[in-house]
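Is this the right way to post structure tokens for a design question? Let me know if I should format differently. Anyway, here goes:
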């Protein structure tokens, strides 16, 4: 089921959201200071391209630097990326078939607002944040 939802998502909104994150990532990578933000944009863009079967979890050890980075992210890119998820989600919820896609868009809003200190994992391993 998640493959079918991912394919429908890709066609209806995932590709366009991915392009938005890609554009934001390229703009943020122009300066050396913006490179971590650009990498976060690319990471979320891939998640927005194929969201079903994945989720986000808090990363342990993310401290004050992530908090400050999230404030900068919110000012630089987060608010308009979240706005695209809101508009797309509302439009998708206008049809019965699009309701699961709209809900997925609304679930992407928190990670688009504050992406630093979060990790994208598969839903069958939602607590697999430690790596060897």
């Amino acid at each position: 089921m998640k493959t079918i939802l991912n394919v429908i998502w890709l066609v209806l909104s995932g590709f366009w959201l991915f392009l938005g994150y890609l554009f934001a990532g390229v703009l943020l990578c122009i300066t050396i200071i913006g490179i971590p933000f650009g990498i976060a944009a690319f990471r979320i863009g891939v998640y927005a391209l194929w969201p079903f079967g994945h989720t986000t979890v808090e990363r342990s050890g993310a401290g004050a630097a992530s908090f400050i980075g999230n404030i900068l992210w919110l000012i630089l890119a987060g608010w308009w990326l979240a706005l695209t998820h809101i508009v797309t989600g509302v439009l998708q919820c206008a049809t019965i078939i699009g309701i699961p896609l709209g809900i997925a868009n609304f679930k992407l809003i928190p990670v688009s607002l504050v992406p630093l200190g979060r990790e994208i994992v598969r839903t069958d391993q939602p607590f697999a944040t430690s790596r060897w």
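Format looks fine. Someone answered above. Worth noting: The radius of gyration is 15 Å. The helical segments are 2-28, 35-49, 64-92, 99-113.
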